[in-house]
Write a structure and sequence with these properties.
The protein is mainly β. It is 3% helix and 41% strand. The protein starts with 8 loop residues before the first strand and ends with a helix.
Length: 722
């Protein structure tokens, strides 16, 4: 059929007298071959019935390259397009809906045509279903309106030249001087300027290439205005639908793709699912994907270990469980190159690829086995630590609990002297001595060891004889040092006992009872240098006075260390501790504090100082203390001392004295038996005090009562002769 000029009507010969006319709204230019339908929109009236196999109209599609592999699809499955372009019904139909949409595709091009049925009712397969457009959004042919605005279909990615005429709206009234006005998204709203309308003819043009993945549909508004621009009809919706082109490759978005399958899994076990995304229209074959495995690495033991469901993308195993054996595989990790192709997998489809990694997981189907039935170890008595490593073999995956070994001593360890742990790197059993062995008690030990895995074995596998082993242990005799009994050794002595006094006789024994060795003794540590020991019989005696008040004594206990040395070659030594608890004797006289006091010469309070006393000895050789002044008589009786408590006394003046320095003899006596007395001079400075300042710098020469001096001298002579 030859295209007519714009506005001309085209008669289509039809066996149905009810189809009087078809109005051509979208036209093809005669200047060049434009791939697609040469007529895109048809109008027919709803007949009483569409008769089976009777031509309804003829469609002309030209891809400008010979129409290789041309096929048609109709939105209503009750219709088809014959190879010659005739649209026919597949059966007698009374209702076909308001529109039919015919999709044509060849190896070089594709396009969409629309057949509008005047008087038809909504039917499945309508445009709104094909393009998933909500009810009421399509500008189908409107009745009783002056504006006829049928939907316009435009393929995406059209090439220049632009602008390109794509359709027309009609003013059925044809009011003189009226003009068309177009508005909406794509005209005066972003993206602005994509469409325009000839205000006189109603011709719609697209000004640039469209992208369906960006905007699949445009809803524009058409109005008719008078010469002043005032709207006189409308607005009416004009739907522009962007026809999808296959311009997007499938993409795998969710990588990396890693799947796991247990070794020995049955044939058909699902490993993982591969899902690709195609941005093209999901209602078309442009986004209909098919999956395929392009390559498998490695290709052993079979080049086809796996199969992928071409529609779902599920990867499953296709080999027998026996071939899915991790221990016999060259590599338990497989890499599959997965292809996703759109156009339902046709050769013209676009391709996307991704790598799927499949790991054959290990199960515990191989028990660990000792490399030999009997191991030997030699260990010295008295030492601890690892003495032998027990090696095993396990064919399972070293990164799993199916390989990691757990060792247990099941016999020969009643004293819990042995312990076995697993080396995490080598999987060996490290057998250790945790309690020192004694050659004199037992020179040989035999242990029975079993090995298992952290994970349980699969049900049809069991541990065998090779999972147990014997360890023969030989204990070597060493020269052990003598041992003191008891240790520590304790004794109680009074301090200041005579030099040469026996403190204690120690005793040490040699554990090496089979060697019949002699033992000698020596001092190891004697901090104060008070002790000596007989090297033969172990008798300890004093070489100096023991002093409880010494800084080497702590909490009344003096500690010294002694050695016992056997006659072995080389000799071995043992160390013993002696703790001497010292009892106190009254060997320290008390001392007073302070020994200096100051008082104002005009003081109203004649109390001079409070004296305290201390004693290094222990109770009862300390307080209560007795405080005394040397005797005073006559006019020199000016001092007084008064007891406050068991440890303190008050020194006071009986009258004010002149500014001078005074030395007062003070006697203090403890409560020991016999008691000890200390005679100490208390220096008292009598100072002048003015304006809260004490001046002791100009004190007269020392004033000491003659009577006090005579009495003090007499007391000293008395003590000497006594």
């Amino acid at each position: 059929m030859k295209a007519k000029k714009i506005g001309e009507q085209v008669d289509i010969k039809s066996p149905f007298p009810l189809f009087p006319q078809v109005l051509l709204l979208v036209f093809a230019e005669d200047l060049e071959c434009i791939p697609g339908f040469q007529q895109k929109v048809f109008h027919i009236e709803q007949p009483s019935e569409f008769t089976e196999d009777q031509p309804i109209l003829n469609l002309v599609f030209d891809d400008c390259e010979g129409n290789d592999k041309l096929n048609f699809e109709v939105s209503n499955p009750d219709f088809k397009v014959e190879p010659n372009g005739s649209l026919v019904a597949l059966k007698n139909i009374t209702e076909a809906g308001r529109a039919l949409f015919i999709h044509a595709r060849s190896a070089q091009a594709e396009d969409m045509a629309e057949v509008l049925i005047v008087g038809g009712k909504d039917h499945h397969g309508s445009l709104k279903e094909i393009f998933k457009i909500e009810d009421g959004s399509l500008g189908i042919l409107r009745q009783k309106r002056a504006i006829v605005a049928t939907p316009i279909l435009i393929p995406e990615n059209q090439r220049p030249p632009f602008p390109r005429a794509v359709g027309r709206v009609i003013d059925s009234d044809g009011t003189e001087g009226s003009k068309f006005r177009l508005s909406g998204k794509g005209v005066d709203q972003e993206p602005k300027g994509a469409f325009k309308i000839n205000e006189n003819t109603g011709e719609i043009s697209v000004t640039r290439s469209l992208d369906r993945e960006a905007i699949p549909t445009y809803q524009l508004q058409v109005e008719i205005t008078d010469v002043s621009g005032k709207s006189i009809e409308g607005p009416v919706l004009l739907d522009i639908i962007v026809i999808d082109q296959n311009d997007n490759r499938p993409i795998f978005k969710e990588g990396p793709y890693v799947g796991h399958v247990m070794e020995g899994s049955p044939t058909g076990s699902t490993v993982m699912r591969m899902m690709a995304f195609d941005a093209d229209d999901p209602a078309t074959d442009n986004a209909l994907l098919r999956y395929n495995i392009l390559k498998q690495t490695p290709d052993k033991p079979s080049p086809n270990m796996f199969f992928i469901d071409p529609e779902k993308g599920d990867i499953v195993t296709v080999v027998s469980p026996a071939l899915l054996d991790r221990e016999t595989m060259e590599n338990p990790k497989y890499e599959l190159i997965i292809e996703a192709k759109d156009m339902a997998g046709l050769d013209v489809g676009l391709i996307g690829t991704a790598t799927a990694t499949i790991v054959i997981d290990d199960k515990n189907d191989h028990p660990p086995e000792f490399t030999k039935k009997e191991f030997h170890a030699t260990v010295k008595e008295g030492v601890t630590g690892v003495m032998v490593n027990l090696s095993v073999e396990d064919r399972d995956d070293p990164a799993t609990g199916a390989w990691r070994a757990v060792y247990t001593v099941i016999n020969g360890n009643p004293g819990q002297s042995f312990e076995i742990q697993t080396n995490p790197k080598t999987n060996e059993g490290m057998l250790s001595v945790v309690k020192p062995l004694d050659y004199e008690i037992s020179a040989f030990h035999t242990l029975l060891i079993k090995v298992e895995n952290e994970d349980p074995l699969v049900p049809d596998i069991a541990y065998g004889r090779s999972s147990t082993a014997t360890v023969q242990i030989t204990v070597l005799d060493v020269n052990e040092g003598p041992v003191f009994h008891p240790d520590p050794m304790t004794v109680t002595k009074q301090e200041n006992i005579p030099i040469g006094s026996v403190v204690l006789t120690v005793s040490a024994t040699d554990p090496d009872i089979l060697q019949h060795q002699t033992i000698g003794y020596s001092v190891y540590k004697d901090p104060a240098g008070w002790l000596e020991i007989n090297p033969t019989n172990g008798t300890i005696f004093t070489t100096a006075f023991l002093d409880r008040e010494s800084p080497y004594v702590h909490n009344n206990v003096y500690t010294a260390l002694f050695l016992a040395i056997d006659s072995g070659n080389p000799p071995a030594t043992g160390t013993g501790t002696l703790q001497i608890t010292l009892e106190d004797v009254n060997d320290n006289a008390p001392a007073i504090y302070p020994t200096l006091a100051k008082v104002c010469d005009d003081a109203k309070d004649l109390r001079v100082v409070v004296l305290g006393a201390s004693d290094k000895d222990l109770h009862p050789n300390t307080d209560p203390f007795k405080f005394e002044l040397s005797k005073q008589s006559g006019p020199d009786k000016v001092w007084k001392i008064t007891k406050i408590n068991n440890t303190h006394a008050q020194v006071s003046l009986l009258q004010n004295l002149k500014k001078a320095n005074y030395n007062i003899p003070i006697l203090v006596t403890d409560s020991g038996k016999p008691p000890l007395t200390n005679n100490t001079e208390l220096k008292v400075q009598v100072c002048s005090c003015k304006k809260s300042k004490m001046d002791c710098s100009a004190a007269d020469a020392l004033h000491i009562s003659m009577i006090l001096i005579l009495l003090f001298s007499f007391f000293s002579l008395f003590c000497k002769f006594s």
